[in-house]
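Morning F.,

Quick status update on the modeling queue. The single chain you submitted on Monday has been processed. Sequence for confirmation:
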Amino acid sequence: MKRFIVLISLTCALLAGCKTQPAQVAHTPGSDVLVLPSPNEMLYAKVYLDQDGAPVYELFHADTPVMLPSALGFELRGTVKYQGLEYSGSEILKPDELPPYMFNSGFEVVDVTFDHFDETWEPVWGEEKSIRNHYNEMLFELRHKDDGKLMNIRFRMFDDGLGFRYEFPDGQPLVHFVIKEELTEFNCAQDNLAWWIPGDFDSQEYEYATSKLSEIPEVFPSRTNQYNSSTTLYSTGGVQTSLQMKTPEGLYVNIHEAALVDYPCMHLLAEGKNLRSFLTPDAEGWKGRLETPCVTPWRTIQVAESAVKQLESRMILNLNEPCALDDVSWIHPVKYMGVWWEMIAGAGSWDYTNAASVKLDSFDYAAAKPNGRHSANNANVRKYIDFAAANGFDALLIEGWNIGWEEWANCNKDYVFDFLTPYPDFDIDALNAYAHSKGIKLVMHHETSSSVRNYERHMEAAYSLMNKYGYDAVKSGYVGDIQPLGERHYGQWMVNHYLYAVTEAAKHHIMVNAHEAVRPTGLCRTYPNLIGNESARGTEYQAFGGTVPEHVTILPFTRLNGGPMDFTPGIFEQNLKEWCGNDSHVNATIANQLGLYVTMYSPLQMAADTPEHYAPFMDAFQFIKDVAVDWDETRYLAAEPGDLLVIARRPKQSSLSGSAKAFSAGRDTWFVGGVTDEEARTADFALDFLTPGKTYEAVIYADAPDADYEKNPQAYVITRRNVTATDSISVEMARGGGFAISLRAL
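Structure tokens below.
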């Protein structure tokens, strides 16, 4: 990285080689304007101090404003006089009882440094073999005129967007400080169309609303009546990131954050077309406790000229630090099944007894009467192992194997699980040996019931138990209100816990799939054993009243912007009432469920239904067996949030296993997936991503002509044809439908 320093008055020198001179935009004078262009010069930011010494930025795409002048800074915890003594940030008084300390104006510029960086790096797993990280950078160093406190703002401009973060250097008057609120603004130039979910400090498990920014408060009440185990809504103008927008001119703009470490998760507060950061508070109402030197997460604004270009962006990953693990040989993609869906749908249960109260240190499970519905029993688990092994899967998740499930949810109980002791009908030694004899690894399940202190109390022993039995992946869960009470799922305390669990797991060579955790911000680059997250409304909600079909066309633009999702697709029996008396209905066709294995990226991919439900449709199930979960190349063929997705992917041969390895067998293969919303659509696309001169067999799994997600979801057709790179394919998608295609060179 070549570093050079320029005077503020010479900022124009940076632009001397630009093909086009950025348009001049009026601003309130207070300092010279600094201009930071993207490497391709299509985007540029303006940064300056206004007449009050307040830092401001603007963002442009060519001559079109994306963000109008937007404020930067903080409101910190001030000081009070109590009984004649002065306390800096009393721990007794609440935030609204303390005078503010405004750290958003009165600054002067100390120095400005410009950098340029260009590298190509290879992820341990991902959507492509290599990722280019290319940006121009500016460090804006500021000092408060009154007290000499220092705050720097680092800007990185990529071809696909702007990232910036606050940095508080060492050796200055500001040492320990508490944030009352971060005052970062995203003052959108237009009243953009937005795809959003309600701002909630404890849950992301919502369906998306589509409205203009100014309409969010009006639409908000209709989006909150959805079942969640723990919710804390904070404002009718509150929304969550990653927030996908579309401008009237057709630009796709996305606001998110990257590298969320030791800091509360950022939400947004919409006021007209203006958005402001709104951090998750701790139990006392404060928004962050920091000690210099320290940095905040990156605030990100991605800008793309098409929906396809937005999906291609890897800016969030690029703003994270490189891999922190010396040895990654033990990290691998996983295609798995699970003793899970039957409990979610209500055909079985996690708990072994119907006891109303269970104390783990005294309850006698051997003498207790079984409820007869416990799914994680020896016979049922063996059945799943047999099916998974026969069909070339890697692993089997088993939920409800351990004692304590009788009163796990929303009981605010501290010592609810020990993560070590199995129920009487789950022989962990015998089942583990049986699974290994079949080439199947078991995936451990650690539901914490949000009793976080209890999980950390048992974590070392639980991970050691996994090492003993050869478990190398864990699904953790955080259902219910966080304990200690008052903390939130997305506050600084919990953000630190989630990362602690990942780093401790890495010491044991364990991969982590965290559910109900904070939404991903690209940390999987730094800690690739964070192989999956839920952190959104997943397939389980198809059993809790259903989910609208458009949901799966939006998630890749929002939730997946920060990392892969364990969405748990593959439901083949949509009529839950007939199966287990559940009145809910799975709002998707079988072809749609197949398409999700390509459109919903994850290196941890589940076939979520039961063996019995797959048995009548083994010809369609073949695609789940064949499809890979780790990729060398991805092509986005068609996309529009809320409408449709069509994506093609080429597998990474070195990571193939089981039936997917047998399908590719060293040959050139591609997989294509498509999904639509509540409207039937035709997907037309060229196959020009195939290797020229080669002929491929295309197996097309599509909706039948009479398929419909409500009326006839199990109707599909499978056709075969030979194709080359000069051919095109046209596929009809039913309402709530989709398609999947495997392509193998002959």
